[in-house]
Amino acid sequence: MTDQEFETALVDAAFALGAEAGWLHVSPAAAARHAGLDLPRAHALFTCTGTILKKFGRLADAAALSHVTADGSVRDKLFDILLRRFDYLQPRRAGVLALMRVLPLCPPLALAMGEMNLISMGWLLEAAGVDATGVSGIFKRRGLLAVWLYGLRAWARDESPDLTATMAAVDTALARAENFAERFSSSSPSTPEPFAPEPEAPAT
Predict the structure, then answer these.
(1) From the centroid of its chain, how far is CA 186?
(2) H or E segment at 89?
(3) Which of 52, 54, 77, 188 is 20 to 30 A off residue 15, Cα-Cα?
(4) Under 8 Å CB-to-CB from 79, ≥6 apart: which residues?
């Protein structure tokens, strides 16, 4: 088993354990024991629960960034990218929902997740052809994060096999973001253009 395969196996074990026992009982060692993985290797690759979540985010981003095409509008590309990220979450749904429940009880972890997600949003924007650097990029990353969280709130309640409600929520949030950005840029041409829908949804 390569390091990449080992890391993926441990992340999946952590989310399975989080679903079963709650995230307060998740650690690299506990996840390794849960999946029968080598403890010394887990120790070498993961220092704490935060590193598990960081790896999970990178895997979700990798899934989202796969198969990005040059065709289509920015909104269409972002829609496809975000839906691929939800597709990655779906097989780990129970563990993700358990994580969402524990975040309000652990502000440092919620803050760390928020920062990691902001970094992810920059990658997703760049993949769609949007410059996510500089002061303007900060607005755009925060705006796309609001879109993601709006969709995440719908996903948490969406039990349909094809994620119909999630797709509708992401489409609605992107439309709001697009309209907001157009209004803001036309009224304040000298101000960095934000990319933000109406704020909604708790953090994950």
Answers:
(1) 30
(2) helix 74-89
(3) 77
(4) 167, 170, 171, 174
Q: Could you give the residue ranges of the DSSP H alpha helices within 90-133?
A: 93-102, 107-127
Q: Which two tokens stand for residue 151?
A: 């969709």
38 phi, psi to nearest 5 deg: -65, 120
- For the stretch 80-129, pLDDT in tens is 999 999 999 999 999 999 999 999 998 888 999 999 999 999 999 999 99
Query: How long is the chain?
Result: 204
**Dist CA 173 CA 115 (whole Å):** 21
Q: Which stretch of DSSP H or E encloses residue 3?
A: helix 3-21
φ, ψ of residue 157 in degrees (nearest 5): -105, -5
Q: φ and ψ at 73, to 5 degrees?
A: -75, 165
Give the residue from 52, 50, 90, 84 showing the smallest Cα distance to 68: 84
